[in-house]
Amino acid sequence: TAFFHFGINTFTDREWGDGKEDISKFNPEKLDAEQWIKAIKEAGFKQAIITAKHHDGFCLWPSKFTRHSIKNTPYKQANSDIVKEVADACRKYDIGFGVYLSPWDRNHPSYGTDAYNTYFVNQLTELLTQYGKVDEVWFDGANGEGPNGKKQVYDFNTWYKLIRKLQP
């Protein structure tokens, strides 16, 4: 599996963002998801995972649940969806498709509250229903503080039930 860790911090030269990045800097004019997938296929990979959202909370798809997303960037005049571009390229080149959705979100104001679990489930639902077959969903254990200084209690059981329901 090839893991594409790409996002706003590709343009800020930081490994982890804090959710306060200027997303107007996100404009990968020469991005070619087909080139990415073709290259990994030629290298022998069988699956790709795209970082749909990292700890900074910036979404590579036009999530309707946050403004901190690709829909509010200059990339393709805010009419873009890199998750879709990668998913489509995976189908074209017969490569498995997966998404990484960081549980930690340093941008969202509800992080650290019960409301955040609903927000997260809403975003996970978007990713599992808009891109065809999803072969893998990847989480990590990152659990730092959010913008309100609180840590989140993650509802992993609900997340796994949702994945099994929507992408068995």
Distance between the termini: 19 Å
Helix percent reads 25-40%
Query: How many β-strand runs?
Result: 4
Structural class, judged by helices and strands?
alpha/beta
Low-pLDDT runs: none
Largest sheet: 4 strands, parallel
Average pLDDT over all residues: 95
Encode the helix/strand succession as letters.
Answer: EHEHEHEH
In terms of quaternary structure, what is this?
Answer: single chain
Biggest sheet strand order reads 1-2-3-4
Shape estimate = globular
Q: Helical stretch count?
A: 4
C-alpha Rg, in Å?
Answer: 15 Å
Taken as a percent bin, the fraction of beta residues is: 5-15%
Topology diagram in text:
Blueprint: E1 2-4, H1 33-42, E2 47-53, H2 82-92, E3 96-101, H3 114-129, E4 136-138, H4 156-166
Parallel strand pairs: 1-2, 2-3, 3-4
Helix pairs in contact: 1-2, 3-4
Report on the structure:
- The protein is an alpha/beta fold.
- The chain contains 4 helices and 4 strands; from the N terminus they run βαβαβαβα.
- The protein has helices spanning 33-42, 82-92, 114-129, 156-166; strands at 2-4, 47-53, 96-101, 136-138.
- Strands 1-2-3-4 form a 4-stranded parallel beta sheet.
- Helix 1 (33-42) packs across helix 2 and helix 3 (114-129) packs parallel to helix 4 (156-166).
- The longest helix is centred in the last third of the chain and has 16 residues, at 114-129.
- It is globular, with a radius of gyration of 15 Å.
- It starts with a strand and ends with a helix.
